[in-house]
């Protein structure tokens, strides 16, 4: 299924499963969309896609991209 990620201004091919959290492959963004991802003690988790820098909050060791809830 192709899903539009408005917050990143891109589409991704995703497998949508009922009753599971929504996750996004950083590998797919880097290899197929040309994004870069870095994680450092100074800057934290940073995703850059199409020239836009997204600083991702980290919760329990997992970088998060805030997305609106699905109704």
Structural account:
With about 70 residues, the protein is mainly β. It is built from one helix and seven strands. The strands form three sheets. It has a three-stranded antiparallel β-sheet, with helices on one face. A two-stranded antiparallel ribbon has the order 1-2. It has a two-stranded antiparallel ribbon with strand order 6-7. Strand 1 and strand 2 form a beta hairpin. It is globular. The mean pLDDT is about 85.
Low-confidence stretches: none
How far from one another are the termini?
18 Å
Shape, principal axes of CA atoms: globular
Tally of DSSP β-strands? 7
Strand ordering within the main sheet:
3-4-5
Q: Gyration radius, to the nearest Å?
A: 13 Å
| Sheet having the most strands | 3 strands, antiparallel
From N to C, what is the helix and strand string? EEHEEEEE
